[in-house]
Amino acid sequence: MRSRGLLMLLIAIVAGLAAVVVAARWMQQQGGERGRIAVAATEIELGSRLTADMVRMVDWPVSSTPPGAFVEVAQLDGRVVISSVQRGEPILESRLAPVGTKGGLSAVVPEGKRAMTVRVNDVIGVAGFALPGTFVDVMVNTQEEGTQRSDRDRSVSKIVLERILVLAVAQEADRDNTKPKVVSAVTLEVTPEQAEILDLARSVGSLSLVLRNQTESKSSATLGATKAQLLGLKAVAAAPSAAAPATAAPKPVVRRAAAAPKPVAEPVAAAPPPPAPRNTNCVEVIRGLSRVTECF
User: Fold this and answer.
1) Domain with CATH 3.90.1210.10 in the chain
2) Which is it for strands 34-40 and 55-61: parallel, antiparallel or unpaired?
3) Is residue 141 within 8 Å of 159, Cβ to Cβ?
4) How far, in whole angstroms, is CA 23 from its chain's centroid?
């Protein structure tokens, strides 16, 4: 019985070894031909210039080799990464700046874009959550056109730039760090036209950064907020800067009534002469318009 047990144990061991060999061959056949590619020997930060000690060669299935992989370490000497690379991750051409590019933040700025820095604090910088790789909107608070800076009643807040990529905070451009950090300056990626708008905005008022969702690309197209809207007041028409001189009221035109024509004196009809007394001599005397008869 004892010899039979030892025999069964020996058969089990041989079968196990055979299964391991078969499984290893099967896995090797599945992997196909293997080659060697360059991977990161350590964590490489964005904007770093590659050196020989940052890269190592490892075996990799040829059928699974990612596009843009490098098969020689010498091909990577002096190249600059435009995104951070984790340890053991393949180094690809798509993650590198063009040949001859110098290291630093300038290597990260895409063609046609610019990097511009704005001064922030713990409030403007969204309590330190505006980190490299996040997107923000830029809002300006200023006064309406034609008002003084001291006139707070005419203040207006307006979003002037949307979905702006944060390239760096202070002197750090690492996009893998998600811990909030309060800094005094934030560098943004903008187009030349956006750079002009941003420079004008910070010269006419105070800026604020508004953190937005990473995947949201829809424009809000707001009209801006004023103090009258904030308090629910009706817009009051602005008083004229200088009172216009009062126009003298036209003098009333007095029209005199036409003078009534003077009555034309009609000749007074002469009274008929009194009848002459009998047996007397009478003489009719005319004086002007009157006629008198005298008898004697």
Assistant:
1) 14-105
2) antiparallel
3) no
4) 61
Answer for the pair 218, 149: CB distance below 8 angstroms, yes or no.
no
Residues 6+ apart with CB under 8 A from 59: 34, 35, 36
The rounded distance, in Å, linking the Cα atoms of 191 and 193 is 5
Pairing relation of β-strands 206-211 and 135-143? antiparallel
Q: Can you spell out the DSSP letters for 44-97?
A: B-TTPBP-GGGEEEEEEEGGGPPTTB-S-GGGGTT-BBSS-B-TTPBPBGGGBP
Distance CA 218, CA 137 (A): 12
Per DSSP, 129 falls in state T
The dotted CATH code for 14-105 is 3.90.1210.10
Section 180-196 average pLDDT: 93
Q: Could you tell me how many residues make up the chain? A: 296
pLDDT-derived band at 293, boundaries 50, 70, 90: confident
> How many C-beta atoms lie closer than 10 Å to residue 163's C-beta?
14
Structure tokens at 191: 């187009």
Question: What type of residue is 190?
Answer: V
pLDDT in tens, 21-46: 888 777 666 656 778 999 999 999 88
CA distance linking residue 50 with residue 296, whole number of Å: 166
Let me know: does 131 contact 181? Beta carbons within 8 Å.
yes
* Whether the Cβ atoms of residue 127 and residue 104 lie closer than 8 Å to each other: no
Question: In this predicted structure, what is the pLDDT of residue 250?
Answer: 53
Could you tell me the pTM of the whole model? 0.59
Q: What tens digit of pLDDT does each residue of 209-247 get?
A: 999 998 888 888 888 888 888 888 654 444 444 444 545
Residue pair 157/139 in contact (Cβ under 8 Å)? The answer is: yes
